[in-house]
Specification:
This protein is α/β, with parallel strands linked by helices. The protein folds into two domains: 5-202, Spore Coat Polysaccharide Biosynthesis Protein SpsA, Chain A (Alpha-Beta Complex), CATH 3.90.550.10; 207-283, no CATH class. It has ten helices and eight strands. It has an eight-stranded mixed β-sheet. Strand 1, helix 1 (15-25) and strand 2 form a beta-alpha-beta unit. Helix 8 crosses helix 10 (258-283). The protein starts with a strand and ends in a 9-residue tail after the last helix.
Amino acid sequence: MSLTASVIIPTYHSWSVLQRCLDHLADQTAEPSAFEIIVVNNAEYDDVPEDLVLPQNARVIWEPKPGSYAARNAGIAEAQTDLLFFTDADCTPRRSYIENGLRTFKEHPGILRFSGAVELEPAGSDWTVPEIYDRLTCLQQERYARQGRAATANVFVRRAAFEKVGLFDGEALSGGDMEWSRRAQANGLELIYTPDVIVGHPARESFDALATKARRILGAKIRSAGNFRFRYYIPPIKKIIPPTKLLRRAIKDPELSSRQVFQVWGCAYRLRLAMIAEQMRLTWLRGTHERR
């Protein structure tokens, strides 16, 4: 079987979780000769560990420019195929990930971009409150797809999509997948969601982990606002109360007790307060958008 697809995985000081991702890719139903794996090391000073076990069809390249989207662009340039799968170092592709993705490409020859399912998973046997919040709000690929968007935790596209739309924003430290989705949609590129192309993704198990991600996303929004950055100088005090749709979603979840529902609501409230503080830091105090 000839080489058919390329899997591109950026990594930043995440070798231990990357090993799990690589182990899952080594256990695919598709033959290793059908796809290549390109790991893009995005850390300026972090050599590949000697004990990292690479599958026979994998290699590591280096992209020193900070940001996972700069790393993904480097992977695109390195890829030897026109069918490109994107996932993250902390994701665990299911065994049929490649096989089902290739079948999807074959069944839709005129479509340039697709997204697959992302299943959030707890770190332990029980879900923490932050993990429940993450499950209810994060990586909702089917909902994103209805809006023409997709998270790069599980996106697969034809190279022609980048030739038409352009590469990811190589300056972005967060939100580059949604920004690229907007450009793709503006260029008329249809997006198909395929629920049988699946990766697992760890839910964030602590409030600090949730806040770190939210700060990174907020910083990306303020950066991309450009000349309209002034809009962020007024903290959104009126948005301090979490949206009722989150509460409704939690109430409808049959796995959650009433106590957990209100704990999730409280977590969301704390997160809103943290974001107001971060917005003031980035605007009033002219703080820098940090890679976290």
